[in-house]
């Protein structure tokens, strides 16, 4: 037998309390019991998103809610500014193109943050732009983009909506939907919400509803209005993912008990310990100093070491699953997730497995330096608490 640890930025580990809920016998969705669960899940999602806007919930993976945002806000031929610095930003551009939306393409290196000044310039040059789309937390790179600054640029434009992919931002980093003027913010169940894959949620502001009224792209399953009308009556337009909604309710209860500020502080501490632990092993951080998120820590694979072998040895030999690089970064970086149901000893375990793996692959470093550095962060966090 080998004990297994899931240290990836999605799917993420699911707490036993949530697993037990999702193991209960299925209930029918047109019942007061389900309606009560849905009501409380939506209320608690508003708390997590820090919004009083509508929150819509879909049975889909995260990409469904991304596509939904585009088909509900735009028409073919609309101009939309897409700022992208990773795999998920690339996907936003592809979805726009699939629907004939004209993309003003702000492409960055994957090691860079999106620069709000470039968005200001793109908005000035394209006053007809109907939207700005940005990824807050790029899961492919660990880069955190400043959506608060971008919010300030878009907030007062009456006909331009700001769409934020916060699929690995929500529950890991600050994302103040209302205070920052974010029109559509999205997340998915298998990320910070500590659930299996299969649910996705988004917020919709008044401005985004006005965009919906203008939008002419075809939509049916993901038609926002169908969800709003039904959710306002504590029900759903189609058969919901009943089991996951019951689990969501439990996960959100746990997050609400912790308190959103504490959840974000915990993630920030875990990310700092992971960064310091990796650096103590001589590994270089991938994300730039001006934009490091708390959902995932990617590091460069050291010269002469096979990145794929790090991931496979950690998994096969030690039972610890981390993520490798995506697209052109396959084999070049490794990514340690710490999003959702994570605590100090998950980081210690992962760093220990990483150290033992690197030692086995012939990489030279001071044994124990990674976990020692992480422990120092945890001890200092206790002192300042
Ligand atoms: C996971 C993720 C998505 C959605 O991916 P799915 O596989 O469709 O759930 C979108 N954006 C980001 C930043 C993500 O991390």
What can you tell me about this protein's structure?
It is a single chain. This protein has helices spanning 16-22, 32-49, 62-73, 87-98, 116-125, 147-154, 206-214, 224-231, 242-258, 260-280, 307-318, 344-360, 369-384; strands spanning 5-6, 54-59, 79-84, 102-107, 131-135, 137-138, 143-144, 161-165, 184-188, 199-204, 296-300, 320-321, 323-324, 333-337. The protein starts with a strand and ends with a helix. The strands form 4 sheets. It has a 7-stranded mixed β-sheet with strand order 2-10-9-8-5-3-4, with helices on both faces. A hairpin with an 8-residue loop joins strand 13 and strand 14. Helices cover 43% and strands 15% of the residues. It has 385 residues and is α/β, with parallel strands linked by helices.
How would you summarize this macromolecular structure in one to three sentences?
By secondary structure, this protein is α/β, with parallel strands linked by helices.
Question: Topology, please?
Answer:
Blueprint: E1 5-6, H1 16-22, H2 32-49, E2 54-59, H3 62-73, E3 79-84, H4 87-98, E4 102-107, H5 116-125, E5 131-135, E6 137-138, E7 143-144, H6 147-154, E8 161-165, E9 184-188, E10 199-204, H7 206-214, H8 224-231, H9 242-258, H10 260-280, E11 296-300, H11 307-318, E12 320-321, E13 323-324, E14 333-337, H12 344-360, H13 369-384
Parallel strand pairs: 1-12, 3-4, 3-5, 5-8, 8-9
Antiparallel strand pairs: 2-10, 6-7, 9-10, 11-14, 13-14
The structure holds pyridoxal-5'-phosphate (PLP).
């Amino acid at each position: 037998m080998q004990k297994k640890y899931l240290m990836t930025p999605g799917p993420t580990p699911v707490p036993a309390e949530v697993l037990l809920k999702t193991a209960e016998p299925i209930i029918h969705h047109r019942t007061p019991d389900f309606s009560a669960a849905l009501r409380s899940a939506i209320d608690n999602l508003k708390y997590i998103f820090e919004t009083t806007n509508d929150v819509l919930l879909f049975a889909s993976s995260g990409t469904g809610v991304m596509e939904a945002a585009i088909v509900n806000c735009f028409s073919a031929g609309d101009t939309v500014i897409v700022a992208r610095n990773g795999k998920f930003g690339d996907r936003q551009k592809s979805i726009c193109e699939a629907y004939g939306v004209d993309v003003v393409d702000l492409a960055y290196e994957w090691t860079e943050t999106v620069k709000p000044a470039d968005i200001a310039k793109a908005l000035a040059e394209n006053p007809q732009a109907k939207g700005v789309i940005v990824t807050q937390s790029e899961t492919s790179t660990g880069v955190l983009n400043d959506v608060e600054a971008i919010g300030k640029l878009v907030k007062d434009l009456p006909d331009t909506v700001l769409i934020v992919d916060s699929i690995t931002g929500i529950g890991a980093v600050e994302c103040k939907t209302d205070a920052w003027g974010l029109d559509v913010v999205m997340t998915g169940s298998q990320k910070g919400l500590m659930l299996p894959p299969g649910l996705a949620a988004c917020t919709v502001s008044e401005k985004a509803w006005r965009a919906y009224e203008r939008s002419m792209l075809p939509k049916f399953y993901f038609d926002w209005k169908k969800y709003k009308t039904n959710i306002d009556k504590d029900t759903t337009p189609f058969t919901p993912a009943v089991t996951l909604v019951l689990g969501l309710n439990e996960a959100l209860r746990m997050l609400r008990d912790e308190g959103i500020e504490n959840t974000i502080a915990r993630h920030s501490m875990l990310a700092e310990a992971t960064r310091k632990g990796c650096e103590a092993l001589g590994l270089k951080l991938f994300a730039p100093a001006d934009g490091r998120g708390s959902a995932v820590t990617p590091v460069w694979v050291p010269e002469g070491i096979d990145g794929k072998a790090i991931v496979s040895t950690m998994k096969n030999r030690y039972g610890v699953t981390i993520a490798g690089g995506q697209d052109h970064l396959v084999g070049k970086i490794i990514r340690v997730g710490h999003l959702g149901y994570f605590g100090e000893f998950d980081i210690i375990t992962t760093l220990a497995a990483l150290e033992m793996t690197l030692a086995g692959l012939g990489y030279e470093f001071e044994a124990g330096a990674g976990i020692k550095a992480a422990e120092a962060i945890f001890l200092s966090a206790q002192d300042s608490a």
